[in-house]
Design goal:
alpha+beta; globular; 12 helices; Chloramphenicol Acetyltransferase; 7-stranded mixed beta sheet
């Protein structure tokens, strides 16, 4: 029997949003010790790494699945096993000229992340980078948003990373993987017809629940009404800004790193959350960016969309966006994860105002904290859940049309997401991961995205921007750094705030491609089975 695994409304929306101009994959850029990742000549041992992932991939079954669309377009797309799955098609090696700098890694990352994932493959890739200075190795990860939200992307590390230098191996008696057959055309048509019936049944069930549990329904309805009321105001529309407009295909990347202790010091000093501190730092960075563009900022605000975790059907809290860095997640060794772990999207969102017109850093932080508190008090994340629930009963053509409208959305100036990562060091095949910067995809009129990830005592902030609309990305990165430094209180003994590290790709991203490294290694463009890309 073929098991059908339909995409949820949010997952399907991410799929419909995907275009060559706006590929909807999450990303990350990590840096490792070379160590066991390389041979005696400093070359990455890609075959050993492929075998390492192949051994563990049963932990995340969706990594072997690709998308199959319905015939009539009524039923949601489904996940089906890729009967030709080859891990070599998803794991590649590229290089920067030695001794490679962080700027060069950022430029290479921008090129690779700008390329859409091939829709006839499982929607993920790992790109290992040779040539970095200091005997280090880079890793650029791409994972489609239809597969996972931010924290689930962190959990993808279960197939590669361990909490000790000694890898945890799969039991030798484990059953070999056998792909399930792909549904036939007849089965897909039947699924389309069943989808029409199911939409009516779901609507009827909601009515029955409202009649049989009236008080529960009334209380929930009041919360929803309050949440929707906060959105149904003129402030729902984001202020006009130069950071919004139709974006192209080329990208830029920048990195900022700060000790997590510094953010916690600010949290305690101002009685806000770490998430508020991150948003205030981004606000300060945007202020410097817009001032550099000659914009008048007195009284100005921008509106940010902040992803917020919601419980999954099993009650699991997948993402502790608030406050980030206090709840380690996704750091169990691969051998300790339950078999068959599923990635997924369990996320809603809230809107907050960023007061870029306020000059004083402390006043900016307090204003950000007040804005996020208002959003939480009025259950804005619940409003997002309701909207997604409505989307879940829409026909697929209507959902695809909604996705096209999102490309021109007027609600947010940018997205800022904050994901808690592991508080302990992680290792890939025995090599320690030193840094890890998350990347959030750009939608049709959002030229800047900001993602933060706490890991091993550091907050890593990845900036992703349209190359043409944001040629001054380094101004934003430096502004975020300065904003954090301005907020960190003086430490006992006059120690100061410590060092905030910024790495920015300062060169324009050209059309060049990394050189091919030989058999089993890869350039950026094109795809074919068997691990070779030409």
């Amino acid at each position: 029997m073929v098991h059908v695994r339909p995409l949820g409304a949010l997952e399907a929306t991410f799929l419909y949003l995907d275009t060559p101009r706006t590929p909807m994959h999450l990303g990350s850029v990590a840096i490792f010790e070379a160590g066991p990742l390389c041979d005696a000549h400093g070359r990455i041992q890609i075959e050993a790494l492929r075998a390492h992932v192949e051994e563990r991939i049963d932990l995340v079954p969706k990594l072997r699945r690709r998308v199959k669309f319905s015939v009539l377009g009524e039923a949601a797309p489904t996940w089906v096993d890729d009967t030709d799955f080859d891990v070599a098609s998803h794991m590649h090696v590229v290089a920067v000229p030695e001794p490679g700098t962080m700027d060069q890694l950022a430029e290479l990352s921008a090129q690779i992340l700008a390329e859409p994932l091939a829709s006839d493959f499982p929607l993920w890739e790992l790109w290992f980078v040779e040539g970095l200075a200091g005997g280090r190795v880079g890793l650029i990860e791409k994972l489609h948003h239809s597969l996972a939200d931010g924290l689930a992307g962190v959990e993808l590390a279960a197939v590669l990373l361990d909490t000790t230098r000694r890898p945890v191996h799969r039991p030798p008696d484990a059953e070999p993987w056998r792909p399930e057959p792909v549904p036939s055309e007849r089965a897909l048509v039947a699924g389309d017809l069943a989808a029409r019936r199911d939409r009516a049944r779901r609507g009827a069930r909601r009515v029955v629940r409202g009649l049989t549990r009236p008080m529960t329904s009334v209380r929930a309805g009041l919360k929803v009404a309050d949440a929707l009321a906060t959105l149904a105001t003129p402030r729902l529309i984001a202020p006009r800004s130069s950071i919004n407009g139709r974006i192209g295909q080329a990208r830029r990347v920048a990195f900022v790193r700060v000790a997590l202790d510094h953010l916690v010091d600010v949290e305690r000093a101002y009685e806000v959350t770490v998430n508020d501190v991150v948003l205030a730092a981004v606000t300060g960075g945007l202020r410097r960016l817009l001032l550099g563009r000659g914009e008048h900022l007195v009284g100005r605000e921008l509106q940010v969309l902040v992803p917020v975790s919601v419980p999954s059907a099993a009650g699991h809290e997948p993402a502790g966006h608030e406050p980030a860095g206090h709840e380690p997640a996704g750091h169990e060794p691969a051998g300790h994860e339950p078999a068959g772990h599923e990635l997924g999207n369990n996320v809603s969102a809230m809107l907050a105002r960023l007061p870029v017109g306020i000059e004083d850093p402390a006043e900016r932080l307090r204003a950000v904290g007040a804005s996020t508190s208002r959003a939480k008090a009025h259950h804005q994340a619940l409003a997002g859940e309701v909207i997604l629930g409505v989307a879940g009963i829409l026909p697929q053509p209507a959902l695809a049309a909604v996705a096209r409208v999102v490309q021109h959305q007027p609600v947010a100036n940018l997205v800022v997401t904050n994901v808690p990562g592991p508080s302990v060091p992680l290792y890939a095949h025995g090599a320690k991961m030193l840094e890890a910067y998350p990347i959030v995809p750009l939608a049709g009129n959002l030229s800047i995205g900001v993602a933060a990830l706490s890991y091993d005592g550091q907050m890593h902030i990845g900036l992703y921007a349209d190359r043409d609309r944001c040629p001054d990305l380094e101004v934003l990165a430096d502004g975020i750094r300065r904003s954090i430094e301005e907020l960190v209180p003086e430490r006992p003994g006059g120690g100061g705030p410590g060092r905030v590290v910024v790495h920015v790709e300062r060169q324009a991203v050209g059309d060049g491609r990394p050189r091919v490294l030989g058999r089993g290694r890869s350039a950026v463009a094109g795809s074919s089975r068997g691990g070779e890309r030409r």
